[in-house]
Amino acid sequence: MEGPDKAAGLHVLMTADAVGGVWQYALDLANGLRSEGVRTTIAVLGPSPSADQQAMAEAMGASLILTGLPLDWTADSVREVEETGRAVARIAAQIGPDLLHLNSPALAAHVPFDVPVVAVCHSCVATWWQSVKGGPLPEEFVWRTDLVAKGYASADRLLAPTLAFAQATAQAYGLVQAPRVVRNGRRSAMLGRQEPGGDFVFTAGRLWDEGKNFTAIDRVASQLAVPVLAAGPLDGPNGTRVDVSHARPLGCLNDSEVARHLSGRPLFLSMAWYEPFGLAVLEAAQRGCALVLSDIPTFRELWEGAASFVAPDDERAAAEEIERLLHDPEARAAMGRSAQERAGAYTVEAMSAGVLRAYHSVLRCKSPTSSLEGAAA
């Protein structure tokens, strides 16, 4: 990293929500930055985090501000997003951070901030629609996309977790320069009781999100003799719901519960149409699970040579590949070892180092003594 002497005393205000992977990202990053002397305050948007989530944030060294403000992607109007942005600006004015880290770039669309802004492109409706549906955006997505575009233009630096998603973002928004790639990392959760090895399939994530393509996984489950366990919510905060007929839903599990299931080294399956990174895949790989993944650019970029790939709409191929691995323990174990080795490149330390470099580059540009005053990404 840049070194503790360069980061010591730095205070970052970060936005996050407790609904999906951004929460894990924010806590892991806050913990990684803490070791470099960076203090992180997280302004939580949307539903309040659970008691377990709040306890984890405290353990990670992050201070929480529970705002109750609407998420930009569930807001009903431009005005709601603007009001949330102004509220975050007021929080920044009150606590005086050195830098604002936006995990919801749309908040910067119409709101000036008094500190430098680093925004992370985790996902957006424009790239989601392109991957999942295709064709012209529906009207309800047009104004959201416009806000995100303005937010991207207002940020001093844009980051993305994969090159594939950075390029898709640049294309969707006509960016002159693609976001800088800083790959996500994930800490390994502490294990209590360990599951014995067993033949089952595991998947995890926001199951209600159509981009995760859980309905395909549910149909794959109907073709298998082993159970398919699915961790994650079936109902989304935007009113979306997915039904389950064949897989076994586990509901929302905390990190240690997910780790316990993965400790048995099940086959991990993702049939996602849209996945800018995929933290659940990384968690499975860290535990040595063999990966069967949809053949999409981000998964190819991250896991080529360490996973099996199937088309997201080819349920028969997914079932056949799972059956093949179930009947070939040596191949399954070898694939699990390859995934675990690859996961070693996607660490919290590497992520934190990349983000901290971005912070320092922006702060240097914004320094009154710098000839690069006012420069943007």
Protein architecture, described:
The protein has a seven-stranded parallel beta sheet with strand order 3-2-1-4-5-6-7, with helices on both faces. Strands 10-9-8-11-12-13 form a six-stranded parallel beta sheet, with helices on both faces. Strand 6 (157-160), helix 7 (163-173) and strand 7 form a beta-alpha-beta unit. With 377 residues, it is α/β, with parallel strands linked by helices. It has two domains: 4-185 and 347-366, Glycogen Phosphorylase B (Rossmann fold, 3-Layer(aba) Sandwich); 201-343, Glycogen Phosphorylase B (Rossmann fold, 3-Layer(aba) Sandwich), CATH 3.40.50. The chain is globular, with a radius of gyration of 20 Å. Mean pLDDT is 92; it is low at 1-5 and 369-377. The protein contains 14 helices and 13 strands. Helix 2 packs across helix 14, helix 8 packs across helix 12 (315-326) and helix 10 crosses helix 13 (329-343). The chain starts with a helix and ends in an 11-residue tail after the last helix.
